[in-house]
Design a protein that fits this description.
Layout lengths: L26 H11 L11 H19 L6 H22 L18 E3 L13 H5 L14 E3 L7 E3 L1 H17 L2 H8 L5 E3 L17 H11 L7 H19 L4 E2 H10 L7 H37 L4 H15 L8 H12 L3 H6 L9 H11 L7 H23 L17 H11 L4 H24 L9 E4 L2 E4 L17 H10 L4 E3 L7 E3 L4
Antiparallel strand pairs: 1-4, 2-3, 5-9, 6-7, 8-9
Length: 532
């Protein structure tokens, strides 16, 4: 590395996330922005029935104990919940009903005459539960979630239902009583009985079919998914984003895929929107910029890793030179000495406001932030040093910077792209950095970016998250220079976009009966609003 172009820096310890595949530490801002749009949602809890099931489990256990003047016991409650989950999964599998995305769906199938509904007997781990899925984000609970339940004040990992949670549980209980025999219902409700004949398991499937919530369940769930305007401010941001999605669907003349909905939320010409919905739309646009920025930086990091493995490069000057050569090969019409300033000027000329620049995305693919990010994900999946990947990532970063400058010039829009966590490389900092150094040659700028925004950023993030049993470090600096710590070339990073919860929102809207959908063969699910 060159000596102090911008001094390499280490970051303060991260206390709010475990790391995962977030090797540049950029994920937290993205999640924060998503949580401002769709709080309470996550990317796995996209059906109503698991919420009904878990809420009923909490309510039924408490109700059973009240009848016997008993107190809730943590161990017994845990075993009861595992029994309900295990039977739910087994009955669906015996009935041939798909459980895609449901926790524990791959638990062992019993072939013996009797089945014991305990996780340890079915090869399941206690942490692989539905309660973890529906309660993440916060989902089941309050504070932006659906407020169906809240943690028990005295019993760890146990819950109690709220009034609306009780109504959802009773709606589900009504269906169970209608579909099950009295003995089946009593077996289900008992926290003391765990074994039943295996051939009786399938009988429960129709009672709690994953894809068939009752109308009462739909009504109670929707009352919290889309609450009235006297609810908390965080819940109202979810309502505004849902209204934005519905506005896109209502304005469309044909069914739309999730990708097309995202495009219209970002670039579409929609009718005048209420103030809260317009605010949600600008937050959404800012999220698309942040998604693109994070992805492009991660792609360049993965490309740099491939330089180490495939071309035995170990210095930042080599990576910068190789990336510059990639630009020369793919875009010979670009002058690498002035390309940064040139592309900044080019995108700025496309529109003097962010709205205008976004609109150009319909006719100029290079201005389509959402589409360009999706294409970059596809291009980065391979393990080859694809020169076009560098060009696409770099141009996307420049487009993001110009958009951010437009936001910053507007007092109304500026707050959407300002974040105080500079160690997270926010949009404002990226736009300011690129503009300050936009007059440099491409190779000089790329070396700066590699050293401060990739290598130092990664080393700082990885060092702050290292533990005795779980290191996050992918690079090291040794006698050879920068070296890879990966086990093989196949582990070079091929990043993806952070799932934005829109598909979850669409699925839940469909589950609540508010929109329709169909799935063409070999194509994305398409959504539409039924017109009377």
């Amino acid at each position: 590395m060159n000596s102090i172009i911008e001094s390499p820096f280490f970051l303060p310890p991260h206390k709010d996330e475990s790391g995962g595949v977030d090797y540049l530490g950029l994920r937290a801002i993205n999640l924060q922005m998503m949580d401002q749009l769709l709080p309470g949602l996550n990317n796995v809890a996209n059906r109503i029935r698991p919420f009904s099931l878990l809420t009923w489990t909490i309510w039924a256990y408490e109700d059973y104990q009240k009848e016997r003047n008993s107190h809730l016991e943590a161990r017994q409650y845990l075993k009861f919940r595992e029994k309900i989950e295990a039977l739910f999964v087994l009955s669906h599998r015996f009935a041939g009903i798909p459980l895609t995305g449901i926790a524990g769906a791959q638990q062992r199938i019993e072939t013996r005459k009797k089945t014991t509904l305990r996780f340890e007997d079915l090869g399941r781990q206690s942490r692989n539960t539905l309660i973890e899925a529906v309660n993440y984000g916060p989902g089941l609970k309050g504070d932006g979630g659906y407020h169906f339940a809240y943690p028990h004040p005295a019993v760890p990992k146990a819950f109690l239902v709220t009034k609306v949670g009780e109504r959802l549980a009773k709606a589900f209980d009504e269906r169970l009583r209608k579909k099950l025999t009295e003995s089946q219902y009593e077996f289900l409700r008992s926290p003391d009985h765990f074994t039943l004949p295996t051939d009786e398991v399938v009988a429960f499937a129709s009672a709690w079919h994953l894809e068939k919530p009752s109308s009462k369940e739909q009504m109670e769930f929707f009352s919290r998914f889309y609450p009235s305007n006297d609810s908390g401010s965080r819940e109202q941001t979810r309502v505004a984003t849902i209204d934005l999605i519905l506005s896109v669907l209502e304005h469309s003349r044909e069914p739309l895929s999730a990708h097309e909905i995202r495009l219209s939320m970002t670039m579409g010409d929609l009718p005048p929107l209420p103030r809260a919905v317009e605010d949600a739309r600008w937050r959404w646009k800012a999220l698309q910029l942040r998604q693109a920025q994070r992805l492009a930086l991660e792609v360049l990091f993965g490309w740099m890793e491939r330089c180490i493995w495939q071309e035995d490069m170990h210095t930042t000057s080599q990576y910068a030179s190789r990336m510059t050569e990639a630009v020369r090969q793919v875009r010979p019409d670009w002058n690498v000495e002035t390309v940064l300033a040139g592309r900044l000027t080019y995108f700025a000329a496309m529109g003097d406001t962010s709205e205008a620049l976004f609109s150009h995305g319909w006719t100029h693919p290079e201005c389509n932030v959402v589409g360009a990010a999706v294409e970059l994900v596809k291009a980065a999946r391979g393990l080859t040093l694809d020169d076009e990947v560098v060009v696409s990532a770099l141009d996307l970063l420049i487009l993001v910077a110009v958009h951010t400058e437009h936001f910053l010039r507007s007092p109304t829009l500026a707050p959407y792209v300002i974040n105080a966590s500079y160690q997270r490389l926010p949009l404002q900092w990226w736009a300011t950095t690129l503009r300050a150094h936009g007059g440099e040659s491409l190779q000089t700028f790329l070396q700066r970016l590699i050293e401060t925004w990739l290598v130092s950023q990664h080393l700082g993030v990885a060092a702050s998250r290292s533990t005795d049993d779980s290191g996050r470090m992918r690079l090291s600096i040794d006698d050879a220079g920068i070296s890879s710590l990966l086990q093989g070339e196949n582990e070079c990073w091929s990043p993806t976009l952070t799932a934005d919860r829109v598909v979850t929102a669409l699925s839940l809207l469909h589950e609540c009966g508010k929109i329709e959908c169909y799935s063409p063969e070999e194509d994305e699910t398409r959504y539409f609003v039924t017109r009377l």
